[in-house]
Fold:
Amino acid sequence: MTAPDPVAEQRPYRFDERLRMVPVDPEGLAVRVAQAHPEDFAGFRQTGLELMLLGRHDEALDHLDRALELASTPRQHLSLWINLADVYRYRGDAPTAEILYLRAVEAARGTDAEALSFAAQHLGKALAEQGRLDEARELLTEALRLRVAEGDVELIESTRTALDGLAELPIPLPPAVVAVVGEDPEFSDEHEGLSGGVALVNGVYWVKRGPRATAEHDRLNWLRARAIRVPEVAAFAEDVLVLGDAGAPSLAAREDSGRAATSPSIGTIMGELLRRLHALPVAECPFDGRLDIALAQARRHVLEGLVDPDDFDDDHGDLGPEQVLDRLVAERPETEDLVVAHGDFTPPNVLENGTLLDVGGLGVADRYRDLALAERDLREDFGDGEVRAFFAAYGLDAPDQRRLDYYRLLDELF
Structure:
């Protein structure tokens, strides 16, 4: 199966120490990509893979998504899932890569042994990078067995190389991070707020890795300079972000029995903080979350099968991801009331001391992007009284229900 290998005839790549493909001649490859004018499945796929080799990951995803739209056979779909997963893995988004690799493995198992060998090998290398060596070894051994049965010497050797390379993985932490957390940090994912791709380290630090961590680092610095309370950055190197513990539980963890009579309500804390955030000058914010950006990302999630309709709100339960996207396009508001928006403003992302968490999606967007999610979660988890307190503290007497509904619907695709 040549599907995961870009331009097999010309082999414009080699493997680095992580067994990732890198271009042999970056300048020549860049020229060829600039001259490319893909028109069909093969053309979009080839150009997408070449863009991946050049590290131009967003462009690579655009081209591979177009190839996915043009795919007409199970083998083509399967190969694109592996290719897309490679791009996400190379850009540091391990969770999304794993979803796509697993889909390819499950689709190929029992139906396409050659495709399964590629899917298992790529997933094995991805898990090895995360330190999940036992799972990686099992998958790579399966890939080797399949390739021995096929008798392709080159593929057999590549899998043996991957197995031998397990001793060099997982990807080490950067020295600047090791200086903070130590040579042998203790990672735990058993903590409040399991979302956001964050791990508790040594009981005192929070660690994120990948493009979301880089985005969050940039936004934390921007917000701190504008007197919005956010966690302290203990270290940041390459794509690893280490945050100090902010010393307070989230509002989502509050129980009425533990609330002091004089403490502000959850809705009041959230409303006051969001009013301050939304008052920041839009012209000074370099991060863009407008609808053009959000809908393009939503479309990508739908096309790549990254939306789980089982997680939809009850009143959207009869819709599929494609139907949600169609409605969002058809019902798009004519204007946007732009503010500096958080992007996921919910009780788990606000601490009792007013610290704002998980700011990787912050950017200029309609204020209802935040209002809709806050209203939904407050109503579901704490009741109508907290919703009223939230809007009173925010300073909005009559929220626009149509915009609340629209941005709650948009959140189904994220």
